[in-house]
Design brief:
Number of strands: 0
Number of helices: 11
Shape: globular
Largest sheet: none
Number of domains: 1
Helix content: 55-70%
Length: 207
């Protein structure tokens, strides 16, 4: 397949979404983006171009397009990281979310998706992040490391959601937990120390 040509056609289709309103194209695009990031040695050019299109969909000005994008992305994440994959122990299953494990994508979802005025968008954004943050058992070691590396620049943003009540807030608190700093987990000790210090300035007394 000529992937660059397909990405160009996808770009044109995305630009035309406000006019033709054929939302099923979004699902096909997301599955294509996922596929192009699965390989051990993917094409940097294809990765870059597909990521541009994915970010365009995530930030699309049309509410129906943005909603469809977030919900289709969440569905894919569930398919790849859902608990139903655990008995099969298929390392390839988590490869489907590799296209999400990049700081630009996580920044878009954390900064704008979580704050979106549409409930379907901000709820899907929260669930996507929760699946990733809780996905250690479902990911390979390399995928988990890649996720955490992409997460470092986004931690200060996510810490704005730290709480002892909400699921996402609890996961964010665990990121900043210094108790397991000597373990093999990530972020590394310096990143965790910075995260813990930032929490000292929170206005929430229970954090």
């Amino acid at each position: 397949k000529n992937w660059l040509e397909l990405l160009e056609l996808a770009d044109q289709a995305i630009d035309g979404l406000p006019f033709h309103k054929h939302l099923p194209i979004i699902r096909e695009c997301i599955h294509m983006f996922s596929y192009l990031w699965k390989f051990d040695q993917p094409s940097p050019l294809l990765q870059t171009e597909s990521q541009k299109l994915f970010l365009k969909l995530l930030s699309h000005p049309s509410p129906p397009v943005k909603t469809e994008t977030y919900q289709r992305t969440l569905n894919l994440v569930k398919d790849c990281l859902g608990i139903h994959n655990l008995p099969r122990q298929e390392p390839a299953a988590c490869a489907g979310v590799h296209f999400l494990l990049h700081h630009r994508v996580l920044y878009e979802i954390s900064t704008f998706g979580l704050q979106d005025s549409a409930e379907k968008v901000n709820t899907a954004a929260k669930d996507i992040l929760l699946f990733l943050l809780k996905g250690r058992l479902m990911m390979t070691a390399s995928a988990w490391d890649r996720f955490n590396e992409a997460l470092y620049p986004v931690i200060p943003i996510l810490q704005g959601y730290a709480s002892t009540e909400e699921s996402l807030g609890k996961c964010v608190l665990l990121i900043s937990d210094m108790s397991d700093v000597a373990g093999d987990g990530v972020p590394p000790s310096t990143a965790k120390l910075k995260a813990a210090l930032r929490l000292l300035f929170t206005k929430q007394p229970n954090v």
